[in-house]
Amino acid sequence: MEKKKFSTGLFLWLILCFCPAVIFAQDSLSIIPAPTFIQERTGYFQYPEMVDVYVSQDFAAESELLRSHPYIHFETAHKVKSRKKLPEKGIFLLQAEAEDRLPESAYQLEVDTDKIMIVAHNRMAVIHALATLMQIAYTQTDGRLVPAASIKDEPKFNYRGLMLDVSRHFYPISFLKRMLDLMVLYKLNTFHWHLTDGAGWRLEIKKYPALTQKAAWRNYPQWKDWRNQGGRYLEMGDPNASGGYYTQAEARDLVAYAADRGITVIPEIEIPGHSEEVLAAFPHLSCSGEPYKNAEFCIGNEETFSFVTGVLDEVLEIFPSTYIHIGGDEVDKKAWKGCPKCQDRIRNENLENEEGLQSYAIKRVGAYLKEKGRKLIGWDEILEGGLAPDATVMSWRGEKGGVEAANAGHDVIMTPGSYMYFDSYQSNPIGQPEAMGGLLTLEKVYAYHPISPDIAADKQAHILGVQANVWTEYMPTQEQVEYMIFPRAIALAEVAWTPTEKRNWQDFRKRLQKHYLLLQRLNVNYYRPSYDVDMTGKYDTNTKKATVVIASEQYDPEIRYTTDGSEPTRNATLYLSPLSLLNTTTVKAAVFKDSVRFGNVKEFTVDIHKGIGKKIIYNNKWNDSYPAHADSTLLNGQYGGLSYGDGEWQGFLGDFDVTLDFERREELHQVKLRFMQLTGPGVYMPSSVKILASDDGKHFRELQRVDNDVPATDSSLRFKTFSFDLQGRLARYIRVIGKNDRKGFLFTDEIVVY
């Protein structure tokens, strides 16, 4: 027996030593963004203790980036003059030749047992290939081993960006470099640096030292506290001052660091709005002439443009980027309307109104930048009053602005809020750190298509790329920034790089599992996928059945559920496909792992009620921005999810007021409807909801009223069901009125009637 055991062990040892392909059977490549072409082969390349590196003359600088690879160690890169006689072993960075038939922006990566060969036309493509090598090292079980493969790859969009707001909260250069390292790893190539805003000015301007002596410092470290306590600035050196700024030397260093890694840094200097901090230090540039009264520059004051160009002159010396971002969004024109100087400017320049005044300012700054060989870029509100002909638009209020600009012949970067705002919650806000609001899941990021079908075919080339924006009002720490960016930025990277026809959500999820290992190895504080399940229901009016889908952020989870009201256990029914229900049912479900429940039990009630499909009359119509399914929304048997923008929640300004017509007198036992509250974006509960009944649709009598008990001071995501026991009363018409005393939005998703 002992001899037999020894023989078996020896056999296995021989397999592991001499058949390495067996090791890799379960450890294939998981590259993100997905390459244009990839073919895995048998065998692997193993990094030696020291490796020989060979480079074409043009790629000598890029060979130094290999030193950041955890397993590539070499002394000096050897210059290669010709590809005809290359060594048999080593790592090669080679200039592409005509016979390679490579597109200009593409790279080719070949890995076999003796060598790794990268072929490309330019340094950017080489950097992308090196990022792929780096990913492989951090996602493989043993990063020293590179599976043999042939990869050809190139980007879909030339602009692949990430914007970080450092005004609301200041982060050190060391952290920004860490972000750049992670960006290059996923082939993102543009860092939009939002340097100025009302919460703080962050760049040294030597001509105007007050910008960093005062406008960079405030009386509360947390943006929310600062805003709620009057929004005041302090002099640098005050013991209570919080904030900071980047010296010009630090900014130049960051720009150079980014450039070495193929990333362009675009600065943003806000004008004419979002400038409270500037006007606190230079109040004479505002319309009132007083600090803390205006957020907009006085456009009628010629000193405004002297100041702006003075700032831009120093900005241009620091940043070599073609684009200079000037913001241009959310301009409150009220002060301009009452300002004699601004009104004189409107008359003297033959402008129509204050929108024209904004356009005048944008065009004037754009012309100045053009004189300096640069291009103006701004948020899509620069469209108001007429867009400067050479300006580029960043669409941030949704797709509409970007679509309009592209169809008008302007270049556009797509950054729509509903898809690319990383200050939104990424899962159920309950239990998550406070965020700005909304819900932007990983799947929703991945599903985004930057080229809208509303853009004319001959204008689609104006979409230069896509960018995610990281507004940091609720991100006071570096750890929180990482938590909000990752892994959503990884999905963004594939949206920006990979051809649409090669994108596949399920395949992406599978590859992403190895990238959690990468993020852990690099100590990134990323968002962990929730163990809680999510359930959605949809009622089919033809079959009279409701379908319930149960999902989880976990990859390939074990979900067990019940429909009898009991709590799910490890012995409960395993969820394999959507449930089909004929009657009102409460489904309870949870994720299990190793026979233990992980996460919370989710309860979901499918209400198949007598109101479904009935006629509804809107006495106060829904808001056009949140129509959901128009007049079929509230009686379709379908509930909304965690976000008021999911297409199931219907939004109202003013009172909620609808009438249901059952077409005959009905015995009514219960009516219930749910409202949402999320105070950040101005979504509130109604102060009260009341039910009225009528037989003729004209004369109504009040049956019952329920007052709201959710405080408006609660800023967390809240849901409340207003329920009414009607005790079998007869009526043909039911009128439901929700009082909107807060004058914000009311959102509801279904009126349930039994």
Structural class assignment: alpha/beta
CATH superfamily of the largest domain: Glycosidases
CATH class of the largest domain: Alpha Beta
Q: What's the CATH architecture name of the largest domain?
A: Alpha-Beta Barrel
The spatial strand order of the largest sheet comes to 8-9-14-15-16-17-18-19
Low-confidence parts, pLDDT < 50 over ≥5 residues? Answer: 1-26
Mean pLDDT score: 93
Total number of beta strands: 33
Strand content: 25-35%
Q: Please outline the major beta sheet.
A: 8 strands, parallel, barrel
How many discrete domains? 4
Q: Cα distance, first to last residue?
A: 74 Å
CATH topology of the largest domain: TIM Barrel
Helical content (DSSP H or I, runs of 4+): 10-25%
Radius of gyration, CA atoms, in whole angstroms = 30 Å
What is the overall shape? globular
Q: List the total number of helices.
A: 19
